[in-house]
Amino acid sequence: MNDQVETTPVDDSGSQEAAPIGFLDSLPEELRHEPSLKNFTDVGQLAKSHVHAQRMIGADKIAIPGSGSNDDDGMPIFQKLGAPINADGYQLQNVELDETTLQSFKEMAAAKGMLPRHVQATAEFLQNQSAAGSEAAQANMDAVSAQWDAELREEFGAGYDAKHDRAAAAGRAMGIDPDIWDQIKLDNGLPLGDHPFIIKLFAGLADQLGEDTLEGVTTELVMTPDEAARKVNELTAQGMPYWDKKHPAHEQDVAEVLRLRGFQFPEPVEG
């Protein structure tokens, strides 16, 4: 008995399965080269796009202006997003800018179609910048004022307060309104009357005007260390009564030199 071996026919048409037909290849010929379909790789993506498009039908739509458009062309879009039609539509919170500046800013924002949240954020930024600038300016003014004061204290010594009084009195004697010194501001923000040059100038004028002109001003403790030193040098020069105990003016000059030494070498004056 001969065993018979059954054989299975072999398909000689190809050794691998046929490649699947591409998504676009499955479409009718007139659609296969449609540019709007080239980014879809399967039916699922196409279906999602179709559903999204259907949902957009009937929704509010605004045409986006082209590159040659101006601010007016874009205004409908800005207003659709919430931009007010005028400056009164901006209700800012916790902003304390100068009223004139703030109003001008809001009018500009309305003209450009800025949204309220953008205007609020910008106003807060401007306010913070203004505050930082004011703090820096005040710090600079304080530093300069302290420097000027130290300069005058060093030069005037024990006569610091009296020199200030005499300078003010000289201004009044010349008919100058005392308030003008504070009203006129220098570039650094400090009043003109605080500048060392002005104080020293009018203190010097006071010495020339005489005591009769300077009503109500003390004449004590008005010498600077340099002025006291010059006077001491005069009184203690060779041949002066200061060195001659038998001279009638000896004791008076010795006492005066002792007094002047207090101006020449004063105790530190605290600010």
Explained architecture:
This protein is an all-alpha fold. Among the domains are: 74-130, no CATH class; 223-271, no CATH class. 51% of the residues lie in helices and 0% in strands. The chain has 9 helices and no strands. It has helices spanning 43-56, 71-81, 99-112, 116-156, 160-173, 180-183, 196-209, 225-235, 250-264. Helix 5 (160-173) packs across helix 7 and helix 8 runs antiparallel to helix 9 (250-264). The longest helix has 41 residues, at 116-156. The radius of gyration is 46 Å and the shape is rod-shaped. It starts with 42 loop residues before the first helix and ends in a 7-residue tail after the last helix. Mean pLDDT is 81; it is low at 14-20.
